[in-house]
Structure formats: C-alpha cells, structure tokens
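User: Please fill in residues for this 293-position structure.
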C-alpha cells in the first residue's frame, strides 16, 4: 500500500464512521417505513411510536456497531477504488491523466460507479445485519432472537451460510453503482463551482465541503431510492419477498404498494443525507489536508 492509498483509507474510514453515527436515527426511521409503512403512517408518527415504545437509545440506535464498522470499511474502499479507476479510465479513454479534481465528468461518473460496485461486496452483509437489527423491536417478543449485531451475523451465517449474508446483493450493487456515480458527479460539480482558480479541493473553505458533500448525499439517494426500498424488503426477510429475486421483488412491491411503496421514507432519507454526507466529506477533506502538512 502506497502513501496515497493509506491517506484515502484513513480519510474515507473516519469520514464514513462519523457520518453513520449522525445519520443512524433517521436511517432507522427510513428502514421502519420501508419495512412496514402502513403500521406507522408517516414520519412523525414513526418517530413518536419508536420513542414511546422502545426509548431513544434502544429504538433509534439499535444495531449501530455493524453499520459504523461497515461504513468505515465501505468509504475506505470506495475512495481508493474511485481514485484507481479514475486514473486508469483516463489513460484508456484520453491517453492521459488530467490534473487532480479537473478530470472529465465522464471519467468521474464511471469511476464513481465502479467504486460503488466494488464497495457493495463489503456493504451487503453489513446492511443486511443493520436492517435485521433495526426491525427486531417490531417483532413479537419471542422472535427477537438477536442479542447484538455480531450475534445476528453469526446466526444468519449458521442458518443460511454466506448466501444468507448476501441476500439483496443485486439490489445493493445497483444502488451503489448508480448512486456512487451520481454522488461523485454531484460533489465534483458543486465544489468546482465554488473553488477559486488555482486552489485544490483540500484548500476549499469548510462550508464548500459541507455543501458539496450534502448535495452529493441527496443525489445518491434521489437516484437510487426505489432500489433501496426493494433491498430493504429482501433483507428484512418478509415472507412475501423471501424467495423473490430482484426483478420479481420490484414487481411485487409495485403491485402491492404502488409508487408510494417505492418512495416511502424518501423525505427523511433526503433530509438526513445532507448533514451526514456533509460531515463525511468535511472529515475526509480535513484528514487529507492534515496529511499533507
């Protein structure tokens, strides 16, 4: 591992872990609405119900360790993969590498999508465990069988093997491939609009990093939310979706819940995506800046 890879890994992992802690309560709300939206009716009632029946910590932060670890690994791999593909794609498509942060948008989009597909190989098991833990409190008491995230992972592996941990993987690859492509395109577009000539991304003001990261997060979820809704249905193992592949699950969700089912929980997701990804990028860029001192 060279110095650039080490820098990307450290910056990406710290940024991803920080963002996950900030986003997690609203992510729990999103998963609950996607899993059983009819029970809650809407975002406000969902928040009230969770707080009243389960408490703040046990309700909103249930299953947090797995996604924190997953986000740290995810973003470390994502940024390394993105930079590697970005460089190689430019060599093939343009026979040269453009200066950092001035790359053609086509290269940015392709590299982002490729990075997303790579990172989905790590993210699928972490997301599956997260979803299972987030809905556990909604099950009858006798079905709340997982003590923590590690126990959930071990039990899933014992019952269904590696295949069980990768349930919903097709949806995850599509979500991450499409979403990360739009993520990096949005980030680069916003930052370049506000970056003074001759300055690097690391030298931009913190508010520019916040704005770029926030817009990137909203772009990710807006471009992929229906896919994520299908993934949640598959990973929470609802009986109607238990044996369906991705295409069949899409058809079933649309037929049973319509467009509302595909976008249930989108508002809270878009709201939480902005601050979460703003912090992610701010931390990422700050670590990069400190690394170069």
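Assistant: Residues filled in for all 293 positions:
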């Amino acid at each position: 591992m060279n110095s650039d890879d080490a820098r990307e890994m450290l910056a990406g992992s710290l940024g991803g872990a920080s963002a996950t802690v900030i986003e997690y309560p609203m992510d729990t709300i999103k998963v609950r609405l996607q899993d059983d939206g009819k029970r809650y009716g809407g975002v406000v009632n969902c928040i009230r119900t969770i707080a009243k029946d389960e408490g703040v910590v046990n309700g909103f932060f249930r299953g947090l360790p797995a996604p924190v670890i997953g986000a740290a690994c995810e973003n470390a791999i994502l940024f390394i993969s993105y930079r590697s593909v970005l460089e190689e794609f430019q060599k093939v498509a343009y026979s040269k590498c453009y200066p950092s942060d001035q790359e053609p948008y086509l290269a940015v989009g392709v590299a982002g999508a490729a990075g997303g597909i790579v990172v989905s190989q790590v993210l699928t098991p972490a997301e599956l465990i997260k979803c299972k833990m987030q809905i556990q409190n909604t099950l009858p008491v006798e079905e709340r069988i997982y003590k923590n995230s590690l126990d959930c992972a071990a039990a899933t592996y014992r019952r269904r093997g590696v295949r069980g941990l990768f349930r919903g993987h097709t949806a995850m690859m599509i979500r991450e491939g499409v979403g990360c492509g739009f993520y990096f395109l949005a980030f680069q577009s916003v930052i370049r609009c506000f970056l003074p000539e001759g300055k690097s991304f690391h030298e931009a003001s913190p508010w520019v990093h916040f704005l770029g990261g926030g817009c990137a997060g909203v772009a990710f979820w807006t471009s992929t939310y229906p896919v994520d809704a299908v993934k949640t249905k598959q990973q929470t193992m609802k009986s109607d979706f238990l044996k369906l592949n991705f295409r069949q699950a899409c058809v079933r969700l649309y037929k049973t819940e319509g467009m509302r089912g595909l976008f249930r929980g989108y508002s809270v997701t878009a709201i939480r995506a902005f601050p979460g990804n703003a912090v992610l990028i701010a931390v990422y860029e700050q670590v990069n800046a400190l690394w170069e001192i």
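For context: The chain has ten helices and no strands.
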